[in-house]
Specification:
Layout lengths: L33 H12 L2 E4 L2 E8 L1 H14 L5 E8 L1 E6 L4 E5 L3 E5 L4 E4 L4 E8 L1 H7 L8 E3 L4 H11 L3 H5 L4 H23 L11 H17 L7 H8 L3 H11 L5 H19 L2 E2 L2 E2 L2 H7 L5 H12 L3 H7 L5
Antiparallel strand pairs: 1-2, 2-8, 3-6, 3-8, 4-5, 4-7, 6-9, 10-11
Helix pairs in contact: 1-2, 4-6, 7-9, 8-9, 10-13
Length: 332
């Protein structure tokens, strides 16, 4: 489908910042403006759910209304550096401010540079997801993310499996989840499949990739959850996990190596500690007794050496803890 040249294409979309912000008229009238009403409609028409460091926005409905509502909602959301656009049904064209456009059919996906802003165009009813990837998710999963827009065709390979997985989702069920473990597990499913799909585009998945048994996967998930629950304990080590699960330390290392997608036990502990530290730096700069120092946050997250904490934090996020706390705001 070619959008260029369509006489009325501009009625279907608007870039970030162009759609007027909703305003409420003076209290003397007691009535909302049309813009405020449209924003309320947009939020109702484009529901969202947060899972495992990602935010999922559902776009569903008639072409004009769905795109307009989605753009109003996207304008109000925190800016992420990467987004995944996944079309489930219909057809949707994404146009970035650089002028690059990409038309996706049912099942197709694209990894987009969200910092550019986004226009959405469609001439038919459709169903799609816009997935915002947080900085911790990008740092953990997409170390070699493509610099430009990357298209993933949904008719074969891992991209097809991911598209099929997303198609089975029901928002009511996802919003009903209360367990952090369940939310992060779903997020890991999505990012595992996305990483494999990108690997196919960038050169293929290794033929010698390990085959993970159901038992190993189950044991790994239990161990991984235990680490999440205890990662702030500075004394946590592989021996503590082995004792908890009645296994040898060698077996714990083997389970993480085989079923952890390349993440060792030490990687898992460090990841959880850094993720918690990032959240604390971003959302809680002060405590009940005054400012919270970087050193104190390091200790609270299980790091006994603030210097080491600063080094590994910069390596993962590209900023020192102090720089990170100044640059980012709002929940991860």
């Amino acid at each position: 489908m070619t959008i260029a040249g369509e006489a009325d294409a501009d009625t279907f979309s608007a870039p970030y910042g162009v759609v007027p912000r909703g305003r409420v008229v003076p209290a003397s009238t007691g009535l909302p403006t049309r813009e405020a009403f449209e924003e309320h409609e947009a939020r109702a028409a484009c529901p969202t759910v947060d899972l495992g460091g990602m935010s999922f926005l559902r776009i569903r409905g008639g072409s004009v209304e769905a795109c307009q509502h989605a753009l109003i909602e996207l304008r109000e959301r925190r800016s992420f550096s990467l987004q995944v656009l996944a079309v489930q049904h219909g057809e949707l064209t994404a146009i970035q401010t650089s002028g690059r456009s990409l038309t996706l059919e049912a099942g197709d996906m694209a990894l987009l540079d969200a910092s550019e802003g986004l226009n959405l165009l469609s001439l038919q009813a459709m169903d799609a997801w816009v997935i915002d990837l947080s900085e911790p998710v990008i740092a953990r999963w997409l170390r070699q993310a493509p610099a430009a827009t990357c298209r993933l065709r949904g008719d074969s390979g891992w991209a097809k499996l991911l598209s099929t997985y997303l198609r089975t989702w029901e928002l009511d069920s996802l919003n009903a989840l209360t367990s952090r473990f369940e939310k992060e597990l779903i997020g890991e499913h999505v990012m595992s499949l996305l990483t494999l799909a990108l690997a196919q585009v960038q050169g293929g998945v290794p033929d010698d990739a390990p085959v993970i048994s159901t038992r190993d996967r189950s044991v790994y998930l239990q161990m991984r959850q235990w680490v999440r629950d205890h990662h702030t304990d500075p004394e946590i080590d592989v021996t503590a996990v082995a004792v908890q699960f009645g296994a040898s330390t060698r077996h714990v290392h083997r389970v993480f190596s085989k079923a952890g997608g390349g993440e060792s036990f030490l990687d898992a502990v460090r990841h959880d500690r850094l993720d918690t530290a990032a959240r604390m730096l971003q959302a809680a700069k002060t405590g009940a007794s005054g400012p919270v120092s970087v050193a104190e946050i390091a200790v609270r997250c299980g790091f006994s050496d603030p210097g080491y904490f600063g080094r590994v934090f910069r390596k993962k996020y590209g900023h020192s803890p102090t720089e990170f706390s100044k640059k980012f705001s709002g929940p991860l």
